Amino acid sequence: MIAAVNVTKTYPAPSGALHAVKSASMTIADGDFAAILGRSGAGKSTLLAIIGGMLRPTSGSVWLDGVSLWEADDRTRAAIRSRGIGFVFQNSAVIRSLSVLENAMLADILAPAASSSEERALELLDCVGLGGKARAFPHQLSGGECRRLAIASALFPEPRVLLADEPTGDLDAEMETRIMRLFSRLSGRRTTVVIVTHNRDLTRYANRVFEMDAGCLSELPNVEELVQ
Amino acid sequence: MSTYWLALRQIRRNPVRTTLMAGGVAAAAAATVAVALMVAGANRSVTKSVSRLGADIMAVPSGEDVARKFNEALLSGKPATFYLSPEQARAAATLPGVLQSSPQTFLETLDNARCCAGKFFVVGFDPQSDFTVSPWLRSGRIPDAARAENGIIVGDRILLREGDTASFYGTEFEVSGVLAATGTGMDWTIYLPEPQFSRMVAQSRGCAERALNIPAGAASAVFIKAKPGIDSIDLAEQIEQAVPGVQAVLSSTLARAAGRELGGIAVALAAGVAVLWLMAMLLTGVIFSQSVREQQAELGLLVAKGADAAFILRLVAAQCAMIAAVGAAFGCTAGAVAAALAGNVLASSAAVPDALLPLPFIALLAGASFALISLSSAAAALLPALRLLKAEPCEALRGEVIA
């Protein structure tokens, strides 16, 4: 279970403090598929980074399976990120000196897994439509392909929580459907999925929908109504 | 996949930067090893040469100026003229603790001597009692030189060889023997056996441009070997107390003086190497800072995926250490080869024997330099990595930590 309690993130700015997230609270149960909607600059990526243990909040707390993420030490937080959280970044970060397959297996460098890890990576690459490009390097991929590689890499360690920031931003409609169905399947298998998007169409895959506006988070009560 | 494997992949990404860094490290390593080996070699050469003079003590006239000139004459062949009276020379040579003694009388050639350009050091010695010149004879024999009517012996660096003639103070001489290279002032000295020396002094009054006024039996220095069991320092004190106007120079003091002289050069060279080293480390730091800046999004990705600080530091240090190790290996090898070549050149052309150090010593020094350079380069690279680790993973991912 993920719980964010009164999370606030403030940045210093010339014109005074800039409140990226204002006292946001949310609770997401295991296996939930949550979508956070909002315009650019609304603070949704900031909130996701705080939930994912990658950006320290100015105040408030985040709980992940009973552990207070920002009260834990760096090593514990790193271990949680390594084993418990899969993160798909907005900038589709990959390591350019590694092949597509090696990027997909990146978690192996940090925590070497069993011998079947290459098979799992190849399966995941197939799932995201990159099976034929396993030996290619990131500079040979398009933006959309890099995004899909980042998704495969995030799913590789079989995380209990998947956090995805605009996961389908560079994808065509067919690939977008494929990826979202993959996320739905994961959610069905008790993986908690939280995506951040500005695309309202994607909310149809989610069972919980939140909206962020100028740093304020609110949950939308009726998902079907929203999709309509 | 391991950290080191990933580090290798990362450094292969930018061959120009890698080569530049390795080159900088190699230059510092080469200079360090070469200078250290050459200074150590030269020090060893001079120390060994002084110890091979054969004398424990040299009795010379009192005075700091005389001691300085004597050191210079012995170490660099700079002409020096000072004299003990015949009584002083005799008294110093006949003290109870003296096993063997041999007097030498110093002169300098006139400016227009036919042998050589400039003033050269001329030493009159007694072939019967000598034990400091004869061990160095490379060709010819001292008795032959002494028997010959006008035979002389020359140091290795004097441009005369057996059969060549030279004229000093109006007397014609023929070279009867040449000394081996000693790496000391002996290489630049012309040795006249006693009968020839006295004859030259006598003839100078009639036919030299400038007459020599050296009393018969006078000597500039008496080279003394102590009896077994007699302490050189005690004997030196005994000489100074028993013979007024005489100071006793210990060969160990001379070796120390030579060491001090070399020490000055070594300090200057070491300062140069230190500057070069500092610049290499600075270059490594700057280049690697650039490298970490380029990699910050990727390092941020690794942190985001759960890499801890130790992993990131290991990855960054491994990259730098690998490059530095390759550079240091090339540099240390090049420095050792350069020092070995320089040692050979010094031994053959500049008459500095024993400048080439033993192979185990060279290997040890090169190994130590290799380890030191690799480690310090890795340390220089850690600074930008630490900056990155202080930031939030999210900021590193966006490439916002190192501008």
What labels would you give this structure?
heterodimer; A: 228 residues; alpha/beta; 4-stranded antiparallel sheet; 8 helices; 10 strands; B: 403 residues; alpha+beta; elongated
Question: What does the model show?
Answer:
The complex is a heterodimer of chains A (228) and B (403). In chain A, helix 5 packs across helix 6. Chain A has helices at residues 44-51, 74-83, 100-104, 107-110, 117-127, 143-155, 173-188, 223-227, and strands at residues 2-13, 16-28, 33-38, 59-64, 67-68, 85-88, 161-165, 192-197, 208-213, 216-220. In chain A, 46% of the residues are buried. In chain A, 32% of the residues lie in helices and 29% in strands. With 403 residues, chain B is an alpha+beta fold. Chain B is built from eleven helices and ten strands. Chain B has helices spanning 3-12, 15-51, 64-76, 86-93, 142-147, 194-207, 232-242, 251-304, 309-348, 359-390, 393-397; strands at 57-61, 98-108, 121-125, 137-139, 151-154, 165-168, 171-179, 189-193, 221-226, 246-250. In chain B, helix 2 packs antiparallel against helix 8 and helix 2 runs antiparallel to helix 10. Chain B is elongated and about 95 Å long. Chain A binds chain B through residues 49, 52-56, 74-75, 78-83, 87, 89, 91, 93-98, 102, 105-112, 153, and chain B through 1-3, 6, 9-10, 12-13, 297-298, 300-309, 311, 392-395, 397-398.
Which secondary-structure class do the elements of chain A indicate?
alpha/beta
Q: Count of helical segments of chain B?
A: 11
Strands across the major sheet of chain A, in which order? 6-7-8-3-9-10
Largest sheet of chain B: 10 strands, mixed
Gross morphology of chain A: globular
Helix and strand element order of chain A? EEEHEEHEHHHHEHEEEH
**SS strand fraction of chain B:** 5-15%
For the largest interface in this structure, which chains are involved and how many residues does each contribute? A-B, 33 and 27 residues
Please give the count of helices of chain A: 8
What Rg of chain A, in angstroms, do the CA atoms define?
Answer: 17 Å
Helix content of chain B: 55-70%
Oligomer, anyone? heterodimer
Mass-distribution shape of chain B: elongated
Largest sheet data of chain A: 6 strands, mixed
Q: What is the end-to-end distance of chain A?
A: 29 Å
Proportion of residues in helical segments of chain A: 25-40%
What is the number of E strands of chain A? 10
